[in-house]
Design a protein that fits this description.
289 residues, alpha+beta, Uridine Diphospho-n-acetylenolpyruvylglucosamine Reductase, domain 2, five-stranded antiparallel beta sheet, 12 helices, 14 strands, binds flavin-adenine dinucleotide
Length: 289
């Protein structure tokens, strides 16, 4: 199916992107990898009057190791994350999630920042960002603001960007102590969206206790959701099988899945529990390595 008619521009600088977005108002949308927006337009689920294609803007494809965090620019593709030594050496959760995003063709074009902006509850990256306590840098013609990921994800396909703002980069904190993490994803076939996904990570303090924990769920709520009670089970405690089992059960309580062709709600909750436990076991092995 063809999308509805739209106007299009391909600026070559961020300033030009921001000016065009401001001038075109509410009807304008950023086009990054196009791997979600174009299918939605073809299905007539989205009909932007104006597309601002950012692919010709130089200098937005950086993965930079900065003080305390890794900054990921708006044109970093999923496959750039797969191949990045910076990511594999700083964040196990991201490194384990990247190969699970879609298929090789989508991974070559789709961007991490586009996924974050899209806020699809079946998208994998926002759970990873919640677990890592990432921040989104929004830029408009009037300046920049930094938005914690919990405030950025508002609802089903809804973020907290204001008109005229773009996601310029996402900042992912590095572990401050010994850390580890994993993204566990159940899909019906290779390349599919998650039936259930769980991102989990934690950091150990000098006594081997859990100093900080992040657990977030994909495809089992109306938006990617932090499993706050499960995180609280972990913090201040010494890792153990029993503790991880308890956290898994608490994470399952945060899931509100639907029964559909992919499985029953009860079974999906069980998968959340098991994947949380397995992710935490993986994180512990990494943190102690
Ligand atoms: C066959 C298929 C399978 C897929 N499977 C998965 C999967 O398993 N897991 C998964 O997580 N995703 C999956 N996806 C989605 C894919 O990851 C997309 O790449 C991603 O959702 C959006 O990134 P994009 O760069 O393609 O964004 P686009 O499609 O270009 O844009 C998506 C939305 O985000 C906005 N946007 C994009 N970039 C910015 C920015 N910098 N600032 C502000 N707004 C912006 C756009 O305006 C639009 O509203 C799949 C897609 C396809 C086609």
């Amino acid at each position: 199916m063809y999308p509805p008619a739209f106007n299009y521009s391909a600026p070559t600088s961020v300033e030009e992107v921001l000016t065009t977005l401001t001038n075109e108002g509410d009807g304008a949308r950023v086009l990054a990898g196009g791997q979600s927006l174009i299918p939605m337009m073809k299905l007539r689920l989205a009909s932007p009057a104006f597309l601002v294609d950012i692919n010709g803007v130089a200098g937005l494809d950086y993965i930079n190791d900065v003080n305390g965090h890794v900054a990921i620019g708006a044109l970093v593709r999923h496959n750039d994350i797969v191949k990045s030594d910076t990511i594999s050496s700083t964040n196990h959760t991201m490194a384990s999630a990247a190969p699970w995003i879609a298929d090789p063709i989508v991974r070559n074009r789709g961007t991490l920042c586009g996924s974050v902006a899209h806020c699809d509850p079946e998208g994998d990256w926002n759970s990873v960002m919640l677990a890592a306590r990432a921040e989104v840098v929004a830029q408009s013609a009037s300046g920049e603001r930094v938005i914690p990921i919990d405030d950025f994800i508002v609802d089903f396909f809804t973020n907290s960007l204001q008109p005229g703002e773009i996601v310029k980069e996402v900042r992912v904190p590095k572990y401050s102590g010994r850390g580890g993490g994993a993204y566990m994803k159940l899909e019906r076939k290779i390349g599919d969206y998650a039936t259930v996904g769980v991102a989990s990570q934690f950091e150990l303090d000098g006594d081997g206790k859990i100093a900080q924990a992040g657990i977030a769920l994909t495809a089992v709520n109306a938006k990617n959701t932090r499993a706050t009670a499960a995180e609280q089970v972990l913090v201040g405690e010494t890792p153990s099988d029993e503790l991880f089992r308890e956290a898994g059960e608490a994470a399952a309580q945060a899931a509100e899945p639907e029964t559909n062709v992919r499985g029953t709600a009860e079974w999906k909750r069980e998968v959340v529990s098991v994947y949380t436990r397995r992710g935490l076991e993986t994180a512990l092995a990494q943190a102690q390595a």
